[in-house]
Amino acid sequence: MPRLAPLLVALAAMAITACGAPDELSRSDGEQLALAHDRVVGAIETEKQLRSSPEAAERIHARVRKIVASGALEAEQLDEFGLAALGELGLVVPSLVIFDRLRIPRQLDREALRIFLAEATSDPAAAVERPASVEIRRIAELLAAADADADTDIPVARQTAAAYVGDLESRLRPTWPKLADELADVRADL
């Protein structure tokens, strides 16, 4: 039995090593992370436009109100008119729309829309923080579930996990430092 102990220790070490982080995430995870990235960047860009001037904020707010006032987005299950309005809304404020893996608008984030309409002209950062926050949580969950490390490649995004998280962290820091801190924690856990 004493001769088996070193063998068992070696086998256990090999098993632990084999269970390490993947070299590359699945394509599905990569697509989800790319969509999350796009939505966060959309929120950042919209916030910049809103704060650029009161006139710009009012113009964007008015365009969103006009799309919503058409009534096409009222139904829970959108028909072709609703999907067209959703596509138009996605061009104005991309972070209010949830896109599928083919980048086709599929769903309205109704809570984000409600907040946007209430805050767009008075508090640009608050107006689009919700979509960014939702996606940051999704990013953290996806990377943790995949057991990604800093060097894990993310297909579709074409970056390592560390580069992906670091890029978003630096983009978020000027407007939403708390969200950037959440990503810094995610990066530290990689």
Topology of this structure?
Elements: H1 4-18, H2 27-52, H3 54-69, H4 80-92, E1 97-99, E2 105-108, H5 110-119, H6 124-145, E3 153-154, E4 159-160, H7 161-172, H8 177-189
Antiparallel strand pairs: 1-2, 3-4
Helix pairs in contact: 2-3, 2-6, 2-7, 3-4, 5-6, 6-8, 7-8
Q: What share of the residues lie within helices?
A: 55-70%
Q: Oligomeric form of this entry?
A: single chain
Give the biggest beta sheet.
2 strands, antiparallel
Compute the number of strand runs: 4
Low-confidence stretches: 7-18
Explain what this protein looks like in three dimensions.
The chain is mostly helical. Helix content is 67%, strand content 6%. Strands 1-2 form a two-stranded antiparallel sheet. It has a two-stranded antiparallel ribbon with strand order 3-4. The chain is globular and about 50 Å long. The relative contact order is 0.16.
Features:
190 residues; 8 helices
Question: In summary, what is this structure?
Answer:
This protein has helices at 4-18, 27-52, 54-69, 80-92, 110-119, 124-145, 161-172, 177-189; strands spanning 97-99, 105-108, 153-154, 159-160. With 190 residues, the chain is mainly alpha-helical.
